[in-house]
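Predict the holo structure. Ligand: iron/sulfur cluster.
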Amino acid sequence: MFRGIQKISLIDYPGKLCCILFTGGCNFRCPYCHNPELVTGYEKLPVIEEKDILDFLKKRKGLLDAVEITGGEPTIHKNLPGFISNVKDLNYSVKLDTNGTNPEMLSSLIQKGLIDYSAMDIKGTPEKYSEIARVEVDLGKISESVKILMESKIPYEFRTTVFPEFFGEEDAEKIGKWIEGARLYILQKPGSGKTLDSEYNNKRVYSENELKEFLPILSSFIDEVKIR
Ligand code: SF4
Protein backbone atom coordinates (compact mmCIF):
# COMPACT_ATOMS: atom_id res chain seq x y z
CA MET A 1 0.00 0.00 0.00
CA PHE A 2 2.75 2.52 0.91
CA ARG A 3 5.22 3.77 -1.69
CA GLY A 4 6.74 6.74 0.05
CA ILE A 5 7.54 8.24 3.44
CA GLN A 6 8.61 11.69 4.59
CA LYS A 7 9.97 11.18 8.06
CA ILE A 8 9.16 14.60 9.44
CA SER A 9 7.01 17.61 8.58
CA LEU A 10 6.28 20.72 10.59
CA ILE A 11 3.62 22.07 8.27
CA ASP A 12 1.31 19.32 7.07
CA TYR A 13 -0.66 18.53 10.23
CA PRO A 14 -2.04 21.67 11.89
CA GLY A 15 -0.25 22.15 15.20
CA LYS A 16 1.55 18.82 15.16
CA LEU A 17 4.86 17.33 14.15
CA CYS A 18 4.09 14.51 11.76
CA CYS A 19 5.51 12.01 9.35
CA ILE A 20 3.84 11.58 5.97
CA LEU A 21 3.00 8.25 4.39
CA PHE A 22 2.21 8.09 0.67
CA THR A 23 0.01 5.36 -0.75
CA GLY A 24 0.34 4.23 -4.36
CA GLY A 25 -2.51 4.42 -6.87
CA CYS A 26 -5.36 6.85 -7.44
CA ASN A 27 -8.79 6.63 -9.04
CA PHE A 28 -8.52 10.21 -10.39
CA ARG A 29 -6.23 11.65 -13.05
CA CYS A 30 -6.14 15.35 -12.16
CA PRO A 31 -3.83 16.91 -14.77
CA TYR A 32 -2.15 19.19 -12.21
CA CYS A 33 -1.38 16.34 -9.79
CA HIS A 34 2.00 16.88 -8.14
CA ASN A 35 2.51 13.24 -7.24
CA PRO A 36 2.29 11.69 -10.71
CA GLU A 37 4.64 8.87 -9.76
CA LEU A 38 2.04 7.77 -7.17
CA VAL A 39 -0.79 7.86 -9.71
CA THR A 40 0.59 6.08 -12.76
CA GLY A 41 3.53 3.70 -12.73
CA TYR A 42 3.64 3.56 -8.93
CA GLU A 43 4.07 -0.21 -9.16
CA LYS A 44 7.70 0.47 -10.04
CA LEU A 45 8.31 2.20 -6.70
CA PRO A 46 9.43 -0.06 -3.87
CA VAL A 47 6.80 -1.06 -1.33
CA ILE A 48 7.41 0.20 2.19
CA GLU A 49 6.30 -2.59 4.48
CA GLU A 50 3.69 -1.70 7.08
CA LYS A 51 5.68 -3.52 9.75
CA ASP A 52 8.72 -1.33 9.02
CA ILE A 53 6.57 1.82 9.29
CA LEU A 54 5.15 0.68 12.63
CA ASP A 55 8.68 -0.09 13.89
CA PHE A 56 9.76 3.41 12.80
CA LEU A 57 6.77 4.94 14.62
CA LYS A 58 7.56 2.99 17.78
CA LYS A 59 11.10 4.40 17.73
CA ARG A 60 9.85 7.97 17.13
CA LYS A 61 7.37 7.98 20.00
CA GLY A 62 7.75 11.22 21.91
CA LEU A 63 9.45 12.91 18.95
CA LEU A 64 6.54 12.79 16.49
CA ASP A 65 2.90 13.52 17.38
CA ALA A 66 1.07 12.45 14.30
CA VAL A 67 0.93 10.57 11.02
CA GLU A 68 -0.47 12.01 7.81
CA ILE A 69 -1.66 9.53 5.22
CA THR A 70 -1.85 10.86 1.70
CA GLY A 71 -1.43 9.61 -1.83
CA GLY A 72 -2.41 8.83 -4.47
CA GLU A 73 -5.76 8.10 -2.88
CA PRO A 74 -5.43 6.24 0.42
CA THR A 75 -9.04 5.03 0.62
CA ILE A 76 -8.74 2.77 -2.44
CA HIS A 77 -6.79 0.38 -0.17
CA LYS A 78 -9.04 -2.01 1.73
CA ASN A 79 -6.38 -2.67 4.36
CA LEU A 80 -6.03 1.04 5.25
CA PRO A 81 -8.35 0.88 8.33
CA GLY A 82 -6.41 -2.09 9.77
CA PHE A 83 -3.14 -0.24 9.35
CA ILE A 84 -4.50 2.97 10.90
CA SER A 85 -5.82 0.96 13.81
CA ASN A 86 -2.25 -0.25 14.48
CA VAL A 87 -0.98 3.35 14.30
CA LYS A 88 -3.67 4.48 16.76
CA ASP A 89 -2.60 1.70 19.13
CA LEU A 90 0.71 3.57 19.31
CA ASN A 91 -1.18 6.71 20.34
CA TYR A 92 -0.45 8.79 17.28
CA SER A 93 -2.92 11.31 15.88
CA VAL A 94 -3.84 10.47 12.30
CA LYS A 95 -4.67 12.87 9.46
CA LEU A 96 -6.18 11.45 6.31
CA ASP A 97 -6.09 13.19 2.93
CA THR A 98 -8.78 12.01 0.55
CA ASN A 99 -10.50 12.86 -2.71
CA GLY A 100 -13.80 11.85 -1.13
CA THR A 101 -14.59 8.89 -3.38
CA ASN A 102 -14.97 6.38 -0.56
CA PRO A 103 -17.53 7.78 1.91
CA GLU A 104 -18.12 4.32 3.37
CA MET A 105 -14.53 3.98 4.52
CA LEU A 106 -14.36 7.63 5.61
CA SER A 107 -17.47 7.24 7.75
CA SER A 108 -16.28 4.00 9.29
CA LEU A 109 -12.84 5.46 10.12
CA ILE A 110 -14.48 8.42 11.85
CA GLN A 111 -17.02 6.32 13.73
CA LYS A 112 -14.27 4.02 15.01
CA GLY A 113 -12.21 7.00 16.19
CA LEU A 114 -9.37 6.09 13.83
CA ILE A 115 -8.80 9.53 12.30
CA ASP A 116 -8.36 12.86 14.05
CA TYR A 117 -8.26 15.24 11.08
CA SER A 118 -9.19 14.96 7.44
CA ALA A 119 -8.41 17.11 4.41
CA MET A 120 -10.72 16.51 1.48
CA ASP A 121 -10.23 17.83 -2.04
CA ILE A 122 -13.04 19.65 -3.74
CA LYS A 123 -11.88 19.47 -7.33
CA GLY A 124 -14.37 22.05 -8.59
CA THR A 125 -18.07 22.59 -9.04
CA PRO A 126 -20.18 19.45 -9.48
CA GLU A 127 -20.56 20.30 -13.18
CA LYS A 128 -16.80 20.39 -13.76
CA TYR A 129 -15.78 17.51 -11.50
CA SER A 130 -15.30 14.79 -14.11
CA GLU A 131 -13.57 17.19 -16.48
CA ILE A 132 -11.06 18.14 -13.78
CA ALA A 133 -10.53 14.63 -12.40
CA ARG A 134 -10.39 13.26 -15.97
CA VAL A 135 -12.47 10.24 -14.96
CA GLU A 136 -16.23 9.71 -14.63
CA VAL A 137 -16.84 10.82 -11.03
CA ASP A 138 -19.75 9.57 -8.91
CA LEU A 139 -20.79 12.95 -7.45
CA GLY A 140 -23.15 11.30 -5.01
CA LYS A 141 -20.10 9.83 -3.26
CA ILE A 142 -18.31 13.18 -3.16
CA SER A 143 -21.37 14.89 -1.67
CA GLU A 144 -21.75 12.09 0.84
CA SER A 145 -18.14 12.53 1.98
CA VAL A 146 -18.71 16.29 2.31
CA LYS A 147 -21.75 15.60 4.51
CA ILE A 148 -19.91 12.99 6.61
CA LEU A 149 -17.11 15.42 7.41
CA MET A 150 -19.44 18.33 8.09
CA GLU A 151 -21.54 16.22 10.47
CA SER A 152 -18.52 14.68 12.18
CA LYS A 153 -16.90 15.91 15.35
CA ILE A 154 -13.37 15.83 13.95
CA PRO A 155 -11.65 18.92 12.53
CA TYR A 156 -11.49 18.88 8.75
CA GLU A 157 -10.71 21.09 5.79
CA PHE A 158 -11.94 21.21 2.23
CA ARG A 159 -9.49 22.46 -0.34
CA THR A 160 -9.31 23.26 -4.01
CA THR A 161 -6.22 23.61 -6.16
CA VAL A 162 -7.13 26.68 -8.16
CA PHE A 163 -6.58 27.14 -11.89
CA PRO A 164 -8.31 29.98 -13.74
CA GLU A 165 -9.68 27.57 -16.36
CA PHE A 166 -11.62 25.64 -13.70
CA PHE A 167 -12.37 28.27 -11.10
CA GLY A 168 -13.95 31.71 -11.49
CA GLU A 169 -16.43 33.82 -9.52
CA GLU A 170 -19.41 31.68 -10.51
CA ASP A 171 -17.57 28.52 -9.52
CA ALA A 172 -16.61 30.02 -6.15
CA GLU A 173 -20.26 30.80 -5.51
CA LYS A 174 -21.40 27.30 -6.54
CA ILE A 175 -18.77 25.60 -4.39
CA GLY A 176 -19.63 27.90 -1.47
CA LYS A 177 -23.27 26.87 -1.72
CA TRP A 178 -22.34 23.20 -2.06
CA ILE A 179 -20.28 23.13 1.15
CA GLU A 180 -22.26 25.84 2.95
CA GLY A 181 -21.63 25.80 6.69
CA ALA A 182 -18.21 24.12 6.38
CA ARG A 183 -15.64 25.06 9.05
CA LEU A 184 -12.62 25.61 6.77
CA TYR A 185 -12.01 25.89 3.04
CA ILE A 186 -8.61 26.46 1.50
CA LEU A 187 -7.80 27.85 -1.93
CA GLN A 188 -4.52 26.21 -2.83
CA LYS A 189 -2.06 27.85 -5.18
CA PRO A 190 -0.68 25.26 -7.58
CA GLY A 191 2.88 24.31 -6.62
CA SER A 192 5.79 24.26 -9.03
CA GLY A 193 7.40 21.11 -10.33
CA LYS A 194 6.28 18.12 -12.31
CA THR A 195 2.63 17.42 -12.95
CA LEU A 196 0.67 14.44 -14.29
CA ASP A 197 -0.05 16.37 -17.49
CA SER A 198 3.11 18.32 -18.28
CA GLU A 199 1.04 21.17 -19.80
CA TYR A 200 0.11 22.09 -16.23
CA ASN A 201 3.71 23.00 -15.38
CA ASN A 202 3.21 26.22 -17.27
CA LYS A 203 -0.47 27.05 -17.00
CA ARG A 204 -1.51 30.52 -16.00
CA VAL A 205 -2.30 30.70 -12.30
CA TYR A 206 -3.99 33.37 -10.22
CA SER A 207 -1.88 35.91 -8.33
CA GLU A 208 -2.36 36.22 -4.58
CA ASN A 209 -4.43 39.39 -5.15
CA GLU A 210 -6.64 37.68 -7.71
CA LEU A 211 -7.22 34.80 -5.29
CA LYS A 212 -8.14 37.26 -2.54
CA GLU A 213 -11.05 38.46 -4.67
CA PHE A 214 -12.76 35.10 -4.13
CA LEU A 215 -12.61 35.35 -0.35
CA PRO A 216 -15.73 37.54 0.20
CA ILE A 217 -17.82 35.27 -2.05
CA LEU A 218 -16.73 32.11 -0.24
CA SER A 219 -16.83 33.66 3.23
CA SER A 220 -20.54 34.29 2.88
CA PHE A 221 -21.05 30.49 2.97
CA ILE A 222 -18.08 29.11 4.91
CA ASP A 223 -16.80 29.82 8.44
CA GLU A 224 -13.16 30.30 7.50
CA VAL A 225 -11.54 30.62 4.06
CA LYS A 226 -7.78 30.72 3.56
CA ILE A 227 -5.28 30.91 0.74
CA ARG A 228 -2.33 28.52 0.92
S1 SF4 B 1 -4.33 15.30 -7.26
FE1 SF4 B 1 -4.93 13.73 -5.77
S2 SF4 B 1 -6.86 12.93 -6.55
FE2 SF4 B 1 -5.88 13.99 -8.25
S3 SF4 B 1 -4.70 12.42 -9.35
FE3 SF4 B 1 -3.30 13.36 -7.86
S4 SF4 B 1 -3.44 12.07 -6.05
FE4 SF4 B 1 -5.22 11.59 -7.33
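The CA atoms of residues 89 and 114 lie 10 Å apart. The beta strands are 2-13, 16-23, 66-70, 93-98, 117-121, 156-161, 184-188, 224-227.
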